[in-house]
Amino acid sequence: MTRTTIALAVMAALALPAAHAQTPAPKAAPPKAAAAKPAEAPGKALYPPSAFDAVLKDRTAQGQPDTPELRAMIREELNTRELLAREARKKGLDKSADIKSQMDLASQTVLVRAFVADWVKNNPLPEADLRREYDAIKSQIGDKEYKVAHILVETEPEAKDVVAELQKGAKFADLAKARSKDPGSKDKGGDLDWNAPANFVKPFSDAMVKAEKGKFTPQPVQTQFGWHVILVEDVRDAKVPSFDEVKPQLAQRMQAQHLDKYFRELRAKNGV
User: Fold this and answer.
1) Does 32 reside within a domain?
2) Packing angle of the helix pair 243-269, 97-122 (nearest 10 deg)
3) 181 lies in which domain range?
4) Which residues contact residue 148 at a Cβ distance below 8 angstroms, ignoring those fewer than 6 apart?
5) Mean pLDDT of 98-116
6) What is the pLDDT of residues 140-182, one digit of tens each?
7) All residues at 6 or more sequence positions from 46 whose CB lies less than 8 Å from its CB, including other chains
8) Are residues 71 and 190 located together in one domain of the fold?
9) DSSP β-bridge partners for residue 150
10) Cα separation, 105 vs 107, whole angstroms
């Protein structure tokens, strides 16, 4: 790796951020098979061993092999950054209010990440809670899915007029293209594809579930979006993922909810 590459990496402040884990370092050029040079001896270190260990751990976690070349590159980067930091302090840049604020924020970010990781580790979600949440979501989704289309208009008289035209033999898709106000389905003949009832507002889903397969609702349905004439084209059993399939995503979502609750309680406790 050339000195220029090291300098560019440092100038861009990408190689070793404050937390030692922000951005991947530039990769060293692969050694030539016939004339590979041995890695340099460690030499003088201007950084604490913990900094080297943290960066090495981060790089290997990103997929870089732990090689003598990688270790030499990290040592050079750390030394270069420390030398530049010393030069910055000599110029008094660390006394700048703006720079101090940025440094404080970087330090705060590291502490917050560490605290959140510690909180999550010490507040694991019980399996029973995850299963209860899964069962609640599964119940909300229901055991059926509906292939449904609709025609959305602004007023009840317009909706009744649509129903009358359908009763006279007009094609649902043609009327949807001509009269529906729903930009997402109008050009598709009103088609909303397959959906669980939970995906719609309650007045719509209630009417959809009650409607006969292959028929449209004889009475228009009002929601906050306007008036709908709904066609249920088909019905099938819902394909709900198993608990084990969704457990990681479910745990992540519930942990985020618990963290948010903790944050709100912490803010309230401190009057902010």
Assistant:
1) no
2) 130
3) 143-237
4) 192, 195, 208, 230, 231, 232, 233
5) 94
6) 888 899 999 999 999 999 999 999 999 999 999 999 999 999 9
7) 78, 79, 82, 83
8) no
9) 230
10) 5
